[in-house]
Design goal:
7-stranded mixed beta sheet; single chain; binds S-adenosylmethionine; Rossmann fold; 6-stranded mixed beta sheet; alpha/beta; about 300 residues
Length: about 300
């Protein structure tokens, strides 16, 4: 029997800005293994603490789910950096029927509220931020997922450059499954592991890919995974945001992990912003590195181990 959640925490709020009760259960889709806020029965939480996500629809969705989950009189603390949605939190919560105390601290806005007797607009906010089919991608998707409603130009360039692959491979950071669908179009592909740290992406990729050769896992590429070994190929559009130092480090980990899990002669297909310094780590980890395409600020590499 699963123990009901009494306090939900979303993300990793800075410890000096929010006290997280010991019994709090993590519900962020970006932390593998977390519970789903969507599955919390309405009116059952005593409290919720949210490091509110930056996307507007995504944030309103999480605020609405948390309010739905709270029992009458339950407390909600939502915070976010001022320039990543924090400045709009109080207004968004007021729009959901809450009376809000809003405090600025260390470049964040910290909003506290008690669940109102009759919150407003919860259904609209959860519908707006929930999974749906978008026609321009012809895929199932959800706000908050990388490039959730349009084809990323880096992915487009990789799609245009990929040959028909063979054997068993992996898609690191699979997102909605756009690259995986193209890879699986080759009948010579016998297996494909899709991995993403975002549960929403993994859930949508399962719907979008639906191929018996594919296995989709909610996991962090940085964690050990014994199922990934002696692969014939890896495809990836590694995470990037602003091309900041942290993102570059993560991109380099994706390259190193690909080199680890490929067999000798196996190939990595990687697309990235042209300004990201990935050529040196590719050359350090692979025997042959070939720039295959370059357009609109992106580059595709084929790297052979
Ligand atoms: C640039 S997006 C590419 C998504 C998809 N392949 C595409 O082409 O549209 C990078 C993906 O990596 C995922 N990601 C970020 N960090 C990760 C990690 N540590 N482990 C696994 N996936 C990660 C993100 O959630 C995101 O879906």
């Amino acid at each position: 029997m699963t123990v009901p959640i009494r306090h939900a925490v979303y993300g990793l709020p800075p410890a000096d800005l929010a006290d997280i009760p010991e019994e709090a259960v993590q519900v962020s889709p970006l932390i593998p293994g977390s519970a789903r806020l969507e599955d919390v029965p309405p009116g059952t939480l005593a409290g919720a603490t949210l490091l509110a996500p930056p996307g507007t629809m995504e944030r309103r969705y999480v605020l609405a789910l948390a309010l739905r989950g709270l029992e009458p009189g339950g407390t909600l603390l939502a915070l976010a950096p001022k320039d990543r949605g924090g400045a709009r939190l109080a207004k968004e919560l007021a729009g959901l029927g809450c009376t809000v105390a809003d405090a600025p601290r260390r470049h964040h806005r910290i909003c506290t509220t008690i669940r109102p007797a009759a919150p407003e607009g919860l259904e609209a906010a959860t519908a707006e931020g929930g999974p749906r089919h978008v026609d321009n991608l012809a895929l199932c998707t959800q706000p908050g997922i990388f490039s959730w409603d349009r084809l990323d130009p880096g992915s487009a360039l990789l799609l245009a450059s990929l040959p028909a692959l063979k054997g068993v491979g992996a898609d690191f950071g699979c997102g909605l499954g756009i690259l995986a669908r193209a890879v699986l179009a080759s009948s010579a592909v016998t297996g494909l592991g899709l991995i993403d740290i975002d549960r929403r992406a993994v859930e949508m990729a399962r719907r979008n890919v639906g191929d018996p050769r594919a296995t989709v896992r909610w996991a962090d590429i940085r964690a050990a995974d014994p199922t990934l070994a002696r692969l014939d190929f890896v495809v990836t559009n590694p995470p990037f945001h602003d091309g900041g130092a942290e993102d570059q480090a993560l991109g380099k980990v994706f390259i190193a992990r690909a080199a680890e899990v490929l067999r000798p002669g196996g190939t990595l297909w990687l697309t990235a912003n042209a300004h990201l310094p990935y050529e040196a780590p590719l050359r350090a980890a692979f025997r042959h590195v070939t720039p295959v395409a370059s357009a609109s600020g992106y580059k595709v590499y084929e790297a052979r181990k």
